[in-house]
Amino acid sequence: MVKEWATVVRWQDGRAVLRYGSSAGCGSCKARAACGSYLLNKLGPEAEHQLEIPVSEPLVTGQKVEVGIPEGSLLRSAMLVYLTPLLGLFAGAGLVQALTESQSAVLAGGLLGGAAGFLLARKIARHWSGSADYEPVILQIGLPPSELSIDMCES
């Protein structure tokens, strides 16, 4: 399960809007200088994303929740998004190259194959969108901000 902490922006009628930021790498080791994921995150803009999911329990603005999605679903989604257009590009270019020797026709066939792969991935993603396997779920709900207080005792 891939997990991320998010902050409640609003909750209304059983639907919560959550805000979460990009994490700076996985954080599981101290090899930040040699980690490609960490370096790529540092290059890009600090982005915050919003997500709307159903939640039966009432939440308050500012409350923290842990959201998760199964690793297999995430991997299948990534493969669909990246590999389907790439395979379409190779298939289109290969098919045209088998029929003609014109390099411009092979280029056009590759581009058309890539576009067809993209459209196929989009259609499959729409089909998958109704599946609960591809929907994030709330794993933990933190205390509301009003419930957290620190009392300092003077000795």
From TrEMBL:
Signal peptide: none annotated. The chain crosses the membrane at residues 79-99, 105-121. This is SoxR reducing system protein RseC. Keywords: Membrane, Transmembrane, Transmembrane helix. InterPro entries: RseC, SigmaE_reg_RseC_MucC. Pfam families: RseC_MucC (PF04246). NCBIfam families: PRK10862.1 (NF008115).
